[in-house]
């Protein structure tokens, strides 16, 4: 009798164990089915350079994004009009409601230029000036009708603590949203783009906030659409003109875009002059190509290269104003002075990086409060590669990273 009871108990326990295992298996299958791309993306995230708090260097990560990250759905719904709407979209789609997202106020005081190497390769150089922060190199896959891309993201914008490494599952899940917050990048068609503050609106910066019947995008989502959908500078301009721009974080931006043919353009939203451009809804897109760039000031025009910092390049925009009113004008002049020496031709990517190092924030005048150049990158639009250096560590070979679409 006792043996019979024991057998019955064992069968019950075994049955319960099998049932629990089945439940766990079904749950695991359901989770993987729902999150398989996100799980693969999180598994790819790795630290590639540690932080150096004494030098005010944040950590550097890389992440390979799997799948389409719902961008087609983002486009189909007409984009978003604000950071709040972007957060809602990311929360519902990417993080599946597990965590609440946050996007902080960015101040992007940077420099970029295009140039050619002695071998004829087209380059796009960029400094991102801000303060100590963690960054991530985000690689996306090619999807039907969309390009693969490599971009740089400041994880502080997603609410990641600048003084800590990205540890813990919730912080890593937050980083899934990085794909919607690129600051610069290149796609596999050889198109590159960057974003830069413009301080439009006079004493108090006024964000561009167009409101027509066009679909909508915010500042970094414009850059994401260009990286995914543009085959050329002209197509990038077409994408920009097809949407209403709603600048993020109550500030204003312009963009530079370039492609492997050597063509480049500055995309700006303006209304009038610096003294009258205080209505974000009244602004309209102006595209200045490198073969029609008058180069504000007494610079000689050229079709071989182009430069951008933080002031509007439209002729007459700062009429009657001092050069001090043109944010980043000193860096603009310094870069042009270097490029003018060789008519926009540099030896190679390292020579282009040397130009970026001249206006790094640790060595350049720091009167606008930026603490450092968080990263410097030279995109080769011909080879479709990137030379990337964090935190002005130009002389440290261990800090020189090279990225491409085959690695």
Structure in words:
This protein has 407 residues and is an alpha+beta fold. It has helices at residues 2-44, 71-76, 83-93, 169-174, 219-229, 233-241, 329-340, 349-358, and strands at residues 46-49, 60-65, 111-117, 122-130, 135-140, 149-154, 184-187, 192-197, 216-218, 244-246, 253-258, 264-270, 284-289, 306-308, 345-346, 372-380, 385-390, 401-404. The strands form three sheets. The chain has a nine-stranded mixed sheet. Strands 3, 4, 14, 15, 16, 17 and 18 form a seven-stranded mixed sheet that branches. It has a two-stranded parallel sheet with strand order 9-10. A hairpin with a 4-residue loop joins strand 16 (372-380) and strand 17. Helix 5 packs across helix 6 (233-241). The longest helix is centred in the first third of the chain and has 43 residues, at 2-44. 45% of the residues are buried. Mean pLDDT is 87; it is low at 21-33.
Features:
9-stranded mixed β-sheet, 27% helix, alpha+beta, 7-stranded mixed β-sheet, 18 strands
Task: Give the arrangement of secondary structure elements.
Elements: H1 2-44, E1 46-49, E2 60-65, H2 71-76, H3 83-93, E3 111-117, E4 122-130, E5 135-140, E6 149-154, H4 169-174, E7 184-187, E8 192-197, E9 216-218, H5 219-229, H6 233-241, E10 244-246, E11 253-258, E12 264-270, E13 284-289, E14 306-308, H7 329-340, E15 345-346, H8 349-358, E16 372-380, E17 385-390, E18 401-404
Parallel strand pairs: 2-5, 3-15, 9-10
Antiparallel strand pairs: 1-2, 3-4, 3-14, 4-16, 5-6, 6-7, 7-8, 8-11, 11-12, 12-13, 16-17, 17-18
């Amino acid at each position: 009798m006792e043996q019979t009871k024991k057998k019955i108990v064992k069968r019950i326990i075994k049955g319960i164990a099998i049932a629990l295992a089945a439940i766990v298996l079904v749950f695991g299958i359901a989770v993987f089915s729902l999150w398989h791309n996100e799980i693969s993306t999180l598994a790819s995230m790795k630290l590639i350079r540690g932080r150096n708090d004494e030098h005010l260097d944040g950590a550097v990560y890389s992440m390979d994004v799997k799948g389409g990250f719902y961008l087609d759905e983002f486009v189909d719904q007409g984009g978003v009009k604000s950071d709040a709407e972007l957060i809602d979209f990311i929360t519902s789609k990417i993080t599946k409601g597990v965590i609440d997202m946050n996007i902080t106020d960015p101040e992007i005081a940077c420099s970029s230029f295009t140039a050619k190497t002695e071998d004829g390769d087209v380059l796009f150089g960029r400094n991102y000036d801000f303060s100590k922060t963690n960054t991530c190199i985000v690689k996306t896959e090619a999807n039907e009708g969309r390009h693969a891309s490599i971009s740089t993201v400041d994880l502080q914008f997603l609410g990641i603590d600048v003084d800590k490494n990205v540890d813990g599952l919730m912080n890593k899940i937050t980083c899934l949203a990085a794909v919607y917050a690129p600051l610069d990048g290149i796609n596999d068609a050889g198109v590159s783009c960057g974003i830069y503050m413009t301080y439009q609106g006079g004493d108090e910066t006024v964000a561009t906030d167009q409101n027509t019947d066009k679909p909508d995008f915010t500042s970094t989502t414009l850059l994401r659409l260009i990286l995914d959908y543009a085959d050329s500078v002209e197509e990038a301009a077409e994408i920009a003109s097809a949407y209403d721009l709603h600048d993020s974080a109550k500030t204003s931006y312009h963009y530079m875009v370039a492609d492997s043919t050597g063509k480049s353009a500055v995309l700006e939203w303006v209304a009038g002059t610096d003294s009258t451009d205080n209505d974000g809804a009244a602004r309209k897109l102006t595209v200045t190509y490198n073969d029609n760039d008058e180069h504000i000031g007494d610079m000689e025009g050229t079709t071989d290269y182009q430069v951008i910092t933080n002031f509007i390049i439209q002729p007459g925009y700062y009429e009657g104003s001092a050069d001090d009113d043109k944010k980043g004008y000193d860096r603009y002049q310094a870069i042009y002075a270097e490029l003018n020496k060789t008519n926009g031709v540099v030896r190679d990517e390292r020579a282009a990086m040397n130009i970026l190092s001249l206006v790094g924030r640790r060595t350049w005048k720091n009167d606008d409060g930026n603490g450092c150049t968080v990263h410097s990158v030279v995109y080769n639009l011909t080879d479709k590669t990137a030379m990337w250096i964090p935190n002005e560590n130009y002389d440290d070979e261990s800090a020189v990273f090279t990225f491409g679409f085959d690695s």
